[in-house]
Design goal:
By secondary structure, the chain is α+β, with helices and mostly antiparallel strands. The chain has 9 helices and 18 strands. Strands 9-10-18-11-12-13-14 form a 7-stranded antiparallel β-sheet, with no helix packed on it. A hairpin with a 2-residue loop joins β6 and β7. It is elongated, with a radius of gyration of 47 Å.
Length: 407
């Protein structure tokens, strides 16, 4: 039953009510004029019965229309599928305060990882072998998490050249930070074994532009006769590989100094005085220095001229820990006491810098620590530790000696 039929019923009922009221009025007048002695009650008219029937019919039609409308709505709801938001509202209950959202362990970059034709193992200050066989191809370099921190010696030296495309002898951890693929923190990352970085190899370029990105600045360079590498992707590793794989990857790494490290001026080896029982390693400026040994500092030599206390009459000692360099010098030529200072920005103080400045270094380049110290107050130990007064310097790795010189 539609709306038009309901309106027609309402109209008919209204007409019946009006006619019935008029008829009842006339009947009431007649009954008062000639009432029957047997029946004192008011007679019922056929019109009153018609009104009541019309009202019942109207109510019945109204409820029937409501039932049909409700059935039609329910049928439409069954035919229409629920929306995504409604499904989620039903299927996913709201998270409580103690609910932990667990991320999928599937690597989202898995499908975009290029196929590598060569795999190498990163080692600080150790260059990659020749990449000429891999030009226009992709190589993979795996980095252990122990090297993915700011205390990595190679990271502190900032030896990497280029922007977006880098020289093949650039430090890979520096490239990771500079490219934004992985943010290097103060401590190694947890819950991973390391990362694998994928590079596309190309020929060397005529120039590489330096830039400051992600808090680290790359260096610029002219013509490079090696190869170029462009980072394309990286992924987290749960393991660096099997023992056999690690041995194989480490075996192909070069043992020579990276070519970009050789771009600095030649080192004047006369500044490196060779005490007895020492061996050469590299210092914070990536230059040759002597490995710390107790005889070199403790005046054990049978030749007085080779004793450190005598060498310091005409020279200044510089010794280093993992990230600091210290200057040990006499107070003056006539004094028998010594002073100890910390060298500021030691990575920049290479042989070229030292040759162009006064030795000992001016106050603007050092931070004074102790002065007026007698030689016997310096206590050197076999575990590479120096005790002097209340100061302790641990893990001394190397030292170097420069002759006294005015600017």
């Amino acid at each position: 039953m539609d709306k038009e039929e309901i309106k027609k019923i309402i109209h008919d009922v209204a007409d019946n009510i009006v006619q019935a009221s008029h008829q009842e009025g006339r009947l009431r007048t007649r009954s008062q004029a000639a009432a029957s002695p047997k029946d004192g009650a008011e007679p019922k008219s056929d019109q009153s019965k018609g009104v009541r029937r019309a009202i019942r019919k109207f109510k019945s039609a109204q409820s029937s229309a409501a039932r049909k409308k409700l059935a039609k709505t329910q049928e439409e709801q069954k035919e229409e599928p629920p929306s995504e938001s409604e499904e989620q509202a039903v299927a996913e209950p709201p998270l409580s305060k103690t609910t932990e959202v667990v991320q999928s362990s599937e690597d989202p970059l898995k499908n975009s990882i290029p196929q590598a034709v060569g795999v190498f193992l990163y080692k600080p200050l150790t260059p990659l072998p020749s990449l000429a066989p891999y030009i226009q191809r992709v190589i993979e370099i795996r980095i252990a998490k122990e090297y993915m921190c700011k205390s990595n010696k190679a990271y502190r030296m900032r030896n990497f050249w280029g922007s977006d495309i880098y020289t093949s002898d650039s430090d890979i951890v520096c490239i990771l930070q500079h490219s934004g693929m992985f943010i290097i923190g103060d401590l190694p990352p947890d819950k991973i074994a390391g990362v694998a970085v994928y590079f596309r190899v190309s020929k060397g370029r005529n120039s590489y532009q330096g830039s400051l990105r992600s808090g680290i600045r790359s260096k610029k360079l002219g013509i490079f006769d090696g190869c170029s590498i462009k980072p394309e992707n990286c992924r987290v590793l749960e393991t660096l590989g099997t023992t056999e794989e690690l041995i194989q990857m480490a075996g192909v790494m070069s043992e020579t100094i990276p070519t970009s490290f050789k771009k600095s001026s030649p080192i004047n080896m006369r500044h490196v005085i060779a005490p007895p029982e020492t061996e050469v390693i590299f210092n914070l400026s990536s230059e040759p220095a002597y490995k710390f040994s107790l005889p070199a500092f403790a005046d054990y030599s049978s030749d007085p001229a080779q004793r450190t206390s005598n060498i310091l009459y005409e020279n200044v000692f510089y010794f280093e820990t993992a990230d600091r360099r210290y200057e040990l010098a006499k107070e003056d030529n006539k004094s028998t006491s010594y002073r100890l200072s910390e060298v500021l920005s030691p990575f920049e103080k290479d042989s070229k810098f030292m040759e162009s400045h006064a030795i000992p270094l001016d106050k603007q380049f050092v931070k004074p620590l102790l002065s007026g110290v007698g030689w016997k107050e310096f206590r050197w130990s076999e575990n590479r530790t120096l005790h002097v007064k209340e100061m302790v310097i641990e893990d001394i790795s190397n030292f170097k000696c420069f002759p006294l010189k005015k600017a």
